[in-house]
């Protein structure tokens, strides 16, 4: 616990050149996202992790600080947020680049692909494409990890909808975790976890973890 708090403190302080509001945003992000659970899932891996829709990268910097055997390639379509992330950068094994989650084209070289609260900000009609592209980027037996927001219970979904409209102006395109799990199966993965997390949070958080099956033909979408 102390190590995690020390990591969070270092990460939040690294954004101080971007202003106090950015530091507060980074702190809130680390408080709301179940970074401890993500650390546990990623701890079995070594190598490169692709993370999409990373924003200013607070979650990825935290994970890299706690798991130094992993390197993170972070993609986001918002150039300004990438610039903030790069200025805050103090870990050489975390890199940032501009990229769209629905058009990720990589050879399957990553140990894992990660999306934290990204899917519900993407057009609903492009969800399956985004999930399939993540699976394509992962090597056989690698992991696809999706933490996102569900539609139920209704009061939690309503709170998240209010939050997203206030912070980003988006009307979130949420799905139930079982729907995302089905997309991963269609993309050639074996689902290892599909569960609700953070039961006492006002947000309807869920986590889906799937392992890419070997010898699966490449999906065409």
Task: Write up what this structure looks like.
- The chain is α/β, with parallel strands linked by helices and 221 residues long.
- It has one domain: Rossmann fold (3-Layer(aba) Sandwich).
- Helix content is 39%, strand content 24%.
- The chain is built from eight helices and seven strands; from the N terminus they run αααβαβαββαβααββ.
- Strands 3-2-1-4-5-7-6 form a seven-stranded mixed sheet, sandwiched between helices.
- Strand 4, helix 6 (127-137) and strand 5 (138-149) form a beta-alpha-beta unit.
- Helix 6 (127-137) crosses helix 8 (177-186).
- It starts with a helix and ends in a 9-residue tail after the last strand.
- Mean pLDDT is 90; it is low at 217-221.
SSE blueprint:
Elements: H1 2-13, H2 20-32, H3 35-42, E1 47-52, H4 58-66, E2 70-76, H5 79-88, E3 94-98, E4 110-116, H6 127-137, E5 138-149, H7 154-167, H8 177-186, E6 189-196, E7 205-212
Helix pairs in contact: 1-2, 1-4, 6-8
CATH class, named: Alpha Beta
Helix content: 25-40%
Supply the number of helical segments: 8
The ordered H/E elements are: HHHEHEHEEHEHHEE
The rounded Rg comes to 16 Å
The total strand number stands at: 7
Distance between the termini: 43 Å
Strand order of the largest sheet: 3-2-1-4-5-7-6
Q: What's the overall average pLDDT, rounded?
A: 90
Strand content: 15-25%
Short description:
This protein is an alpha/beta fold. The protein contains 8 helices and 7 strands; from the N terminus they run αααβαβαββαβααββ. It has a single domain, classed as Vaccinia Virus protein VP39 (Rossmann fold).
């Amino acid at each position: 616990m102390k190590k995690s708090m020390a990591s969070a403190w270092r990460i939040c302080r690294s954004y101080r050149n971007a202003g106090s509001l950015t530091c507060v945003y980074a702190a809130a992000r680390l408080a709301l996202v179940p970074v401890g659970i993500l650390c546990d899932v990623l701890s079995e891996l070594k190598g490169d992790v692709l993370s999409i829709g990373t924003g200013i990268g607070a979650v990825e910097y935290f994970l890299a600080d706690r798991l130094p055997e992993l390197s993170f390639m972070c993609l986001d379509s918002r150039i300004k947020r990438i610039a903030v992330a790069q200025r805050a950068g103090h870990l050489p094994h975390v890199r940032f680049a501009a990229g769209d989650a629905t058009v990720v084209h990589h050879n399957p070289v990553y140990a894992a692909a990660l999306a934290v609260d990204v899917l519900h900000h993407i057009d609903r009609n492009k969800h399956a494409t985004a999930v399939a592209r993540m699976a394509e980027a992962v090597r056989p037996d690698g992991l696809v990890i999706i933490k996102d927001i569900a539609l139920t219970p209704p009061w939690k979904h309503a709170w998240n909808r209010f939050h997203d409209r206030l912070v980003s102006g988006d009307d979130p395109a949420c799905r139930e975790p079982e729907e995302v799990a089905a997309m991963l199966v269609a993309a050639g993965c074996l689902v290892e976890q599909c569960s609700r997390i953070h039961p006492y949070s006002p947000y309807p958080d869920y986590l889906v973890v799937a392992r890419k099956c070997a010898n699966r033909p490449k999906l065409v979408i």
